[in-house]
Amino acid sequence: MQPQPLEEPTLSHLADKKRIVLEVLVVLGVMLLVKDVADRFNTIGAGSIAMWCGIFVAAYFMNKQGVSWKDRGLTLPSGSMNWVKALGLALLTVVAVLLLMALVVPLVSALLGAHVPESSTDRFEFFLGQPLVFVAYMLVVIWIGAAVGEELLMRGFLLNSLIELFGDHKKGISAAVALHALIFGMLHISQGVPGIIGTAGVAVIFAVVYLLNGKKLFPLIIAHGLVNSISITAYYLSDGKIT
After folding, report:
1. For residue 149, pLDDT beyond 80
2. Residue 162 pLDDT greater than 50, yes or no
């Protein structure tokens, strides 16, 4: 039997790496472009709209590779015990995120002398004193736009793409988690340094839960929605005083 040449798999490997980098850049570029255009028109939920545009592009790339969202963990738990496990894991994730936001982020921000810009919450003022508008925003933007959308794109697409890029081993996974957290943090740059630190930390927590739990998105979607719901409800009930 003739030995196989080494050049072909090497070239194929490099081609895959280039494809992944290009796909990630295109998806992020589409998101940023849509977000910029939506912001120029003062569109409500501009970030969620941009996120879902990125999801559609990501789905196109995944489909070309024969990968579905189900393959990336978008499934419901099966059986009562799995539901209990998923919801329990979601609640533990919420606790971890709240501890991060209450203890770690303020400490690091104080050490850096960083503060959240007051303008970062201006986009929420439109629903203050408007309960029906608030509920609609909670459902469409917080749960569908952020909870479902960000988990699909950030964990389902981006994290998996980076693991494929860096390698499915300890060092590669660590690099993928770190870079995906940095990207997620920088997408919240309007919240200042504390916002970047907080969201990057949340991305690390969610990535660890995702990977240790067999890459299942459902617990993260629930946790993400609950965390955002808690913060936005506190803002609403305090008439914008709690941010």
Report:
1. yes
2. yes
Contact status, residue 157 vs residue 72, Cβ threshold 8 Å: yes
Burial class (CB in 10 A: 0-12, 13-18, 19+), 239: exposed
Stated length of the chain: 243
For the chain, the straight-line distance linking the first and the last C-alpha, in angstroms and rounded, comes to: 69
Helices 80-99/192-212 angle, 10° precision: 150
Domain boundaries, the chain: 70-237
* pLDDT tens by residue, 21-43: 999 999 999 999 999 999 999 99
Q: Is the overall model pTM greater than 0.90, yes or no? A: yes
- Spatial contact of 134 and 127, defined as CB atoms under 8 Å apart: yes
Return the number of other C-beta atoms located less than 10 Å from residue 12's C-beta: 10
Tokens (6 digits) for 107: 């400490």
